Request: fold
Amino acid sequence: MHIPKGKSQDENILSFEEALTHREDSSIYDRDRWLYIPDFYSEYRYILGTKGKKPLICIGINPSTAEPDNLDNTLKSVQRIADGNGFDSFIMFNVYAQRATNPDDMDKELNLEMHEENMKAFRYIMKFSCESPAVWAAWGTIIEKRKYLIDCVADMIKIGEEFGAKWYRAGKVSAKGHPHHPLYLRKDSVLEPFDVVGTYNIK
Reply:
């Protein structure tokens, strides 16, 4: 479990650029295989994934405890579905960067500074794909936990449009149209196009 120490606004958070260039001496993971930014366990995480030329970018709500070579069950499912749909790698990204195993522990109010750095991270991973980036919406009904989360998604959509991103879902949508969370999906689940703009009436 990861319970935040407090509001992320009270934490000393590296900018994305600082996190990207940071090198933790005690790090033991294979940097040629893994993307892990920042490269140490902290109260937030921008990116976790594997390196490849055709990544599946999975979007959850917020990170929990996963690290390189120590994936939680959600990330294991993401990796299986990426493999099963013909991708050579996966990138786990989140609408909000604050670590919290229980989403109820997330910030009550948006940390705008952290969000802006998270969007820089999203723009960074958009450049990894040789083709249009494949973005898998996988946040489930947890998107309803905080009012600011939809606004964060809207910013991601705008960035994705610059790169011709294509949005997908896996499994059935909820009664309100939210895409399925990865944890309980079949390992042979097929990605299908997802109208993220229409679902959330984003203009």
